[in-house]
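User: Earlier you gave me the apo prediction for this protein. Now I'd like the version with adenosine-5'-triphosphate bound, so I can compare the two side by side. Same sequence as before, with the ligand SMILES added.
Assistant: Got it. Here's the input I'm using:
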Amino acid sequence: MNEPIIKFDNVVKRFGDITVLDSLNFQVQKGEKVTIIGPSGSGKSTVLRILMTLEAINEGIIHVAGKPLWHEYKDDRLVPASEGHLREMRKEMGMVFQQFNLFPHMTVRRNVTEAPVQVLGLSKAEANQRAEEYLDLVGLSDQADKFPRQLSGGQQQRVGIARALAMRPNIMLFDEPTSSLDPELVGEVLTVIQRLAEEHDLTMLLVTHEMQFAKQISDRVCFFDKGKIVEEGPPEILYTSPKEERTREFLKNFINQE
Ligand SMILES: Nc1ncnc2c1ncn2[C@@H]1O[C@H](COP(=O)(O)OP(=O)(O)OP(=O)(O)O)[C@@H](O)[C@H]1O
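And here is the structure of the complex with adenosine-5'-triphosphate:
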């Protein structure tokens, strides 16, 4: 097997007295689509936030694209990562948030061009061209001059996806991208994510409670509980014949979605 694009080795994350990730070992291969499922508070979002460098780790080591994420080499010694190293590493990843996190005072176009201009140093014209490309991909070319508040939740989330893609990351992280949407708006966002999964060579790591959707797009589903992977496998196997009691209990609640 090739070197994984994401590799967690014995990663520990604590918030005060709570251990959220408990010596986690976890890998994702390049191009793989992986979904993390599990009960509330099991540490799913924390995995994504750590990758996006929004939360630091307490112990262990993470590699992304072969390089340490939260550490860097200085004279052959591994030391905590500098802000410069984190900034470089962040370019590998794009993240789509549960609450969209769009800039409310910027137009849709500006939301998408801001980071390519500020972080990657693209010219305005280049960034606008990119924005056009990715807004088209999410079906929102005609909304570029609007502000987020003028859009539906589903449209805002699609802007969030275009914004992340405009940085041309190798890895896309989706943190419960549909859970703050009204039910009738969930489908349009899932359709866009599914198209991305099918047509692009992206590595995708998704946290969701949409079990049926996870089944459709994932090569592998990981069931998390108490900061560890309890069980993992291709969805058609994990869903139908889970080995662990905890996985069975969890999946039972979703069986009526099947
Ligand atoms: N910044 C923080 N400060 C303190 N505790 C936190 C912080 N972020 C997360 N936690 C705690 O860490 C635990 C795991 O949170 P996380 O959001 O990763 O869970 P989750 O599995 O994604 O849950 P959910 O499905 O409800 O989103 C929870 O107990 C949460 O309260």
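For your comparison, keep in mind: Residues 15, 18, 20, 38, 40-46 surround adenosine-5'-triphosphate (CB under 6 Å).
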